[in-house]
Request: fold
Amino acid sequence: MIFIRPRSQNPRTCAARRSFALAFVLSLAFAGGGVIIAHPRQQQQDAQTMRLAQIEFDGLKRVRPDEALAASGLQVGQAVGVNEVDAAANKLMGAGLFKNLSYSVRGTSEKAVIIFKVEELTSTMPVIFDNFYWFTDEELASAVRRKLPSFDGTAPESGGVTDTIKLALEELLRERKIPATVEYTFSDERRGRSPEHLFMVKGAGLRVCRLEFPGARALQQELLVQKSGGIFDNDYSRRYVGVFAENSLLPLYHERGYLRASFLQPKVEPVEAGGECEGGGVRLSMPVEEGPVYLWEKAEWSGQEALTPQELDAALGMRGSEIANVLKVDKGVGAVRKAYGRKGYLTAQVAASPAFDDAGRRVTFRFRVTEGAQYRMGALYIEGLSEQDTNNLRVRWNLMSRDVYDEGYVVEFVKKGVAEFVRDAARNGRPLKPFKIESSARPDREKLTVDVTLAFKPDTPAAPEKAREVIP
Reply:
């Protein structure tokens, strides 16, 4: 067995790149029925055809043999030369199924066996069919399997598979006589989402001109429609609708204690032109399951040492038997972090998980606290004042070096300490011109200290940055 041409593909690139290395140039000898090695310059004149008795694939795991064979374009019984086999290898790599590929030939010119040794692309991502509302996901997947029999809802990160999927979807639209095109987007990890292959329909009269919320009782449909400006009168996108409902509509329920409210799979129907649907569009129905209202039972804390459960409850600000307003809980968690910041714990994290008592319609929130390291005060820098004013202001600063750092002290000092400093300067006949003060804190993660800078800048329209505080 002699390997002819290895192929390789880098799966981390969006456009597949092929690397070709010529190992040997073979021709099958008709005389004697053996395999001989020919000099490259003799390739064209000595090249012979061989009839394929068998085509094998070594290394297949996810890809089926019939799919790989179809991608190669070869057939058993076909008479081919080296150029045709090389072209088949190119097709296999272009299909985006394999990371590396090489092939070998054995047998005789009348009964040749080609063996493709392959390494599959193992890094796959979900394939998302966004707004093909005419079809179910299974119908779309079936259409893709006509061209990719092994399609399982995912595709390699790179290669030609996405082109094949796009072609299959466009053929499906043509079959149904839907005047639209398919657009492919590689969606990366931004906004907390895993990367995915996103396929959308464009140009098919997808404007949402009617919006309904079946099942809505606690909230009036008019309010939900009013709060759905990102959906209404824009082209329908199932992905966007889901994100919008989660970020903009569910909070309306959560602040009213409907903690288990959820929006079900949206339903889309075409609407003829007329009335509010001038030019045509779609009716979007977003069924909602509101569930019951939950009352606040209590908070349970774990992992805390610097603050007591009573101090944490006070910062959280929730009271027993009040409506479990998740927006208020989130605000309370922010207050808990600030309470830790005042004790020098600048990286404290709070993770919450609700425990529901469905029978009593009550909820207990379990908070896991990770306090992190405690920081101390480093150096204080004052910029933009004279030496005398700098010294006068510095003596008013009470957070000394190596004291436990208080994250809230800087804001308090800017509001109170600096204001008193300005009034004293005016009383002493040295009034200051209007200025903006910008404060910044720079934590040192190795020394566990925080350096604070107070920068005084003239309050003029030409000031480059928005200031935190303006003092006349």
Observations:
- Residues 9-46, 467-472 have pLDDT under 50 and may be disordered.
- The domain at 2-120 is CATH 3.10.20.310 (Ubiquitin-like (UB roll)).
